[in-house]
C-alpha cells in the first residue's frame, strides 16, 4: 500500500490531544470558456500522533474536487511531531468567493486552553482588474512546533509572500468568523500586522506549549475591481482583504538556557545559509539545492527540521552541514513555493532551536539573474567581528571564564578564515581576546 493511500485512509479519524496546526495556500490555474477556474490548494496538517482530517466546503460554491493527494513532508527524529502535505485541485464556477473549513478535535494540551481545532480559508477567484487574472493567496508555511527558552527574547518573522504583489497582514483568529474555537492568543506573544511574532523573556511559570492561531490576509495596494460572470463588478479598496488563509502551529516555551547568545547553546546559522525571506529561482525539472550551515559551541547540532513541498529531499554532508533539494514539476510552473527550516541542537536531553528561516522558491525565469540573494549581508570587517564577539562575552551568564574565552576564540578563528586574512593578522587579533 502506498504512503499516499495509507494517509488518505486515515482521513476523518480522531484521537485525543494530537493536533498541532495547519496552513493552507492556493494558486489559480486555467480559466475555462464558461468562466470556471481550476484552483490548486496546498495545505499542511501537523500532528503529534497518527491522525488525520479533511478540509470541507463551508460557505459558497466550492465547485468540484477533481484530485487530492496527501504525502509526508517531515517527521522529527524523536517522533515528537510530523507534518503531512496535501494538494487539492478543484474546478470552481464563476460564482464569487467561497470558504473551506477544518473543524474537529483536539489540539495538544496547551497553556492557552485551546481544545477544538478550527480553521477557515477564504478563496476568491473573481478576475482582478490589475492583473487580469484570478487572485492567488499569500504563500507561507511554518513548522508544527518552534521552541524558545523562557529567558530569551526572540522574533518569529513569518514568511508572507504574495504572488500578486498585495500587502500581506496577519492577525489572530476571530471566533465570530469561525476561524478558531476558542481563539485565545498566547499571553507570551505580541503580533504585528507585518506578521512578526515577538516573544519577550519571561519566567519559568510561562513554560509549556501554546497554540498559535493566526490568519494571514492579502490587501490590494490600490483600489481594484473584481469581476464575476463577465460583468458584475465589486470594488475592493486597500482596506478590504481579498482572501485569507490560516497559519496555526505550536510555540513551546522551554526552561531557561545559560546563555541566549546564538552560537553557544542556541544554534547560529552560518554562510551560505540563505537569508530569511530570500527569493530563489529554479525551472521545471531543474533541481534547486539550498545549502544550510549552523553551529553551536555548547550543544550538538542534531537535525534540520523543515516544512515545504513533500518531495523536498534532505542530505547531510558534515557536522551542521545540510542541503535541501527540490525539483519542481510541470504542474508547479509559474508558482512560488515556500520552504522554512530550523536547526535543532541537543545538550544532554535538552533541545534548542535556531531562529526559523524561510525562503520562497519561484518556478520560472528569474527577473534579475544577476541579483543573487545573500545569506548574511555585507561581509563584516575584522574590527567589527572583534567588537561583536566581545559584546557577546558580556551577555553570557552561568559560564566559566575559560568556557567563554574558548568559545569566542574559536568563533573568531572561523570568522577570520572566512575573511581570508593572512595568518599574521589572525594572530594579532586573537591576542586581543
Describe it for me?
It is a single chain. The radius of gyration is 23 Å and the shape is globular. The strands form seven sheets. Strands 19, 21, 24, 25 and 26 form a five-stranded mixed β-sheet that branches. A four-stranded antiparallel β-sheet has the order 1-2-5-4. It has helices at 3-9, 382-395, 401-419, 423-430, and strands spanning 19-31, 37-47, 56-59, 64-75, 82-92, 98-105, 116-123, 127-128, 145-149, 154-157, 167-172, 189-191, 196-199, 208-219, 224-228, 232-236, 243-254, 268-270, 278-282, 288-295, 300-307, 313-318, 321-326, 336-347, 350-353, 357-363. Helix 2 runs antiparallel to helix 3. The model is unreliable at 1-15, 369-400 and 421-433 (pLDDT under 50). A hairpin with a 4-residue loop joins strand 12 (189-191) and strand 13 (196-199). 11% of the residues lie in helices and 42% in strands. The chain has 433 residues and is mainly beta. It is built from four helices and 26 strands. It folds into two domains: 93-363, Sandwich (Immunoglobulin-like), CATH 2.60.40; 382-430.
Amino acid at each position: 500500500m502506498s504512503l499516499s493511500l495509507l494517509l488518505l485512509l486515515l482521513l476523518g479519524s480522531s484521537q485525543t490531544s494530537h493536533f498541532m496546526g495547519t496552513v493552507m495556500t492556493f494558486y489559480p490555474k486555467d480559466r475555462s470558456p464558461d468562466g470556471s477556474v481550476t484552483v490548486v490548494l496546498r495545505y499542511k496538517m501537523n500532528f503529534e500522533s497518527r491522525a488525520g482530517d479533511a478540509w470541507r466546503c463551508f460557505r459558497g460554491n466550492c465547485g468540484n474536487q477533481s484530485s487530492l493527494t496527501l504525502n509526508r513532508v517531515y517527521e522529527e527524529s524523536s517522533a515528537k511531531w510530523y507534518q503531512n502535505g496535501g494538494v487539492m485541485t478543484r474546478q470552481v464556477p464563476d460564482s464569487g468567493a467561497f470558504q473551506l473549513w477544518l473543524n474537529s478535535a483536539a489540539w495538544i494540551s496547551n497553556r492557552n486552553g485551546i481544545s477544538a481545532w478550527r480553521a477557515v480559508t477564504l478563496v476568491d477567484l473573481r478576475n482582478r482588474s490589475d492583473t487580469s487574472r484570478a487572485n492567488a493567496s499569500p504563500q507561507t508555511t511554518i513548522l508544527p512546533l518552534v521552541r524558545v527558552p523562557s529567558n530569551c527574547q526572540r522574533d518569529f518573522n513569518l514568511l508572507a509572500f504574495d504572488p500578486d504583489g498585495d500587502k500581506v497582514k496577519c492577525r489572530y483568529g476571530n471566533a465570530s468568523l469561525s476561524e478558531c474555537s476558542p481563539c485565545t492568543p498566547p499571553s507570551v506573544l505580541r503580533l504585528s500586522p507585518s506578521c512578526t511574532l515577538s516573544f519577550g523573556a519571561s519566567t519559568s511559570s510561562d513554560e509549556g506549549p501554546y497554540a498559535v492561531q493566526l490568519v494571514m490576509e492579502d490587501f490590494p495596494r490600490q483600489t481594484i475591481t473584481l469581476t464575476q460572470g463577465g460583468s458584475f463588478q465589486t470594488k475592493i479598496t486597500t482596506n478590504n482583504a481579498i482572501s485569507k488563509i490560516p497559519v496555526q502551529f505550536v510555540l513551546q516555551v522551554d526552561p531557561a538556557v545559560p546563555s541566549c547568545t546564538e552560537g553557544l547553546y542556541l544554534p547560529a546559522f552560518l554562510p551560505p545559509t540563505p537569508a530569511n525571506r530570500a527569493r530563489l529561482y529554479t525551472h521545471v525539472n531543474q533541481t534547486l539545492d539550498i545549502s544550510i550551515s549552523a553551529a553551536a559551541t555548547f550543544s550538538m547540532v542534531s537535525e534540520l527540521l523543515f516544512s515545504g513541498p513533500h518531495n523536498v529531499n534532505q542530505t547531510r554532508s558534515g557536522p551542521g552541514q545540510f542541503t535541501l533539494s527540490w525539483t519542481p514539476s510541470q504542474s508547479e510552473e509559474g508558482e512560488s513555493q515556500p520552504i522554512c527550516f530550523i536547526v535543532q541542537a541537543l545538550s544532554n536531553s535538552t533541545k534548542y532551536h535556531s531562529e526559523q528561516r524561510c525562503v520562497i522558491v519561484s518556478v520560472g525565469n528569474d527577473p534579475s539573474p544577476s541579483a543573487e540573494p545573500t545569506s548574511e549581508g555585507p561581509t563584516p570587517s575584522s574590527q567589527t567581528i572583534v567588537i561583536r564577539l566581545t559584546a557577546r562575552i558580556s551577555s553570557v551568564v552561568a559560564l566559566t571564564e575559560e568556557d567563554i574565552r574558548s568559545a569566542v576564540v574559536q568563533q573568531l578563528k572561523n570568522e577570520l578564515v572566512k575573511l581570508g586574512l593572512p595568518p599574521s593578522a589572525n594572530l594579532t587579533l586573537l591576542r586581543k581576546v
